[in-house]
UniProtKB/TrEMBL annotation:
GO molecular function: DNA-binding transcription factor activity; sequence-specific DNA binding
InterPro entries referenced in this protein's UniProt entry, alphabetically: HTH_AraC
The organism's place on the tree of life at top rank: Bacteria
Family annotation (PROSITE patterns): HTH_ARAC_FAMILY_2
Lineage: Bacteria, Pseudomonadati, Pseudomonadota, Alphaproteobacteria, Sphingomonadales
Full protein name: Helix-turn-helix domain-containing protein
Domain HTH araC/xylS-type positions: 177-276
C-alpha cells in the first residue's frame, strides 16, 4: 500500500496536496488483476472543509463511503448525491465531485472486469452514475459497503474486497482473449487508426465496433482519441511544472489540436484546469504511480495487471 497526503510534499505536487486529505492505493489479489486495476481509499480528515475536484475520463468504477458524503456529476451540470455506494460507467468527460470529511473507497474496473462482473452493454452506461440499490444492475457489488464499514484498516478492507470479488468470478467472460488484445492495442501509442486497432485485436472493423461499444463503452475512434489525450494529460499530472506544449503526445498536430481535445474531454481549458486546486487528483497521481506504475487507470495495460 502507498499513501500520499497533504502533510508531505512529494515532487512538484507538493503545492497541490491539501492538509487533511490523504489517498492510498492497493493492488487486488493476483487472480483479480485482469479484471480490477486497483483499490483506493481517500480520507478527508474530521474538521476539514469539503473538498472539490475533478477527475479525467476513466474506465468504470464502484465508489462507496461509510459515514462520508459524496456528490458527483460527469460532464457539465450540478453535483448529485451518490451515497453510500454507486457505480459509474466508462466516461468520456471529466467528473466533478465533492467529498465531505469521511472515508471513501474506489474499486476500479478494467474493461474485462466490466464484461465479467457486470455484463450489461457498456455503451448503455457510458458517462452515467447510479446509486446502487436492490434492483440495480450493480446490486452484486452492494456487499462491498459492509466490507468497508467494519474497521479503518485499509489492508484488511482490501482483503475483504478481494474475497467478495473473487466470489463473483464465474467462468471466463465471452471473448475474453479478444477483449485483452483490444485493450492492449488501445494502449499502444503507435496504433493510430481504427484499421490498425482492429488488426491488432485480431478482428474486423465492424466486429471491433460492436466489441468496443459492448465492453469499452465507446466507438474505436473515440477510444483512440481519448487515449491520445490522456497520455498527454498524464505527463502534466506527473510534473505540473511542465508547459502544456511539453506534454503533447506525438499524435497531436499542434497545441490547438490538443486544446480542442482538452475542451472535449475535460469541459474546460488547459489553463483553467492547471490553475484550479486538485487536492485529491494530485495525491492520487502520486500514490497510484507508486503502487501500480501508472498515474491513471486508463493507462494500465492488461499485461501489467496479471
Amino acid at each position: 500500500m502507498w499513501v500520499a497526503n497533504g502533510e508531505s510534499a512529494v515532487s512538484d505536487h507538493g503545492a497541490n496536496l491539501k492538509p487533511g486529505v490523504s489517498v492510498s492505493y492497493a493492488l487486488p489479489a493476483g487472480p483479480l488483476r485482469r479484471y480490477i486495476s486497483t483499490y483506493s481509499q481517500t480520507v478527508v480528515a474530521p474538521g476539514s472543509p469539503t473538498v472539490f475536484d475533478q477527475v479525467y475520463p476513466e474506465w468504470p468504477n464502484i465508489r462507496l463511503t461509510a459515514g462520508g458524503d459524496m456528490a458527483a456529476c460527469t460532464g457539465p451540470g450540478p453535483l448529485q448525491p451518490c451515497n453510500p455506494i454507486c457505480a459509474i460507467g466508462p466516461t468520456s468527460h471529466s467528473t466533478h465531485f465533492s467529498l465531505a470529511p469521511g472515508r471513501y473507497w474506489t474499486i476500479s474496473l478494467l474493461p474485462l472486469g466490466w464484461a465479467q462482473l457486470v455484463g450489461i452493454r457498456a455503451a448503455e452506461f457510458a458517462d452515467r452514475w447510479e446509486v446502487i440499490g436492490r434492483e440495480s444492475s450493480f446490486a452484486a457489488f452492494a456487499p462491498l459497503l459492509d466490507c468497508a464499514g467494519q474497521d479503518d484498516d485499509f489492508t484488511s478492507i482490501a482483503a475483504r474486497f478481494d474475497a467478495h470479488l473473487l466470489a463473483m468470478l464465474k467462468r471466463p467472460a465471452r471473448r475474453e482473449e479478444t477483449i485483452l488484445k483490444a485493450h492492449d492495442a488501445l494502449l499502444d501509442p503507435e496504433v493510430t487508426t481504427v484499421d490498425a486497432f482492429a488488426e491488432r485485436a485480431g478482428t474486423g472493423v465492424r466486429a471491433l465496433e460492436r466489441l468496443s461499444l459492448a465492453t469499452f463503452g465507446f466507438s474505436p475512434k473515440l477510444l483512440l482519441r481519448r487515449q491520445r489525450f490522456l497520455r498527454s494529460l498524464s505527463q502534466f499530472m506527473l510534473d505540473p511544472s511542465l508547459a502544456w506544449i511539453d506534454t503533447l503526445d506525438h499524435q497531436y498536430v499542434d497545441q490547438a489540436h490538443f486544446i480542442r481535445d482538452f475542451r472535449r474531454f475535460m469541459d474546460t481549458t488547459p489553463g483553467a484546469f492547471a490553475a484550479a486546486p486538485h487536492p485529491v487528483l494530485w495525491a492520487a497521481a502520486v500514490a497510484r504511480t507508486a503502487i501500480a506504475g501508472k498515474p491513471m487507470q486508463v493507462l494500465q495495460r492488461p499485461s501489467e495487471s496479471v
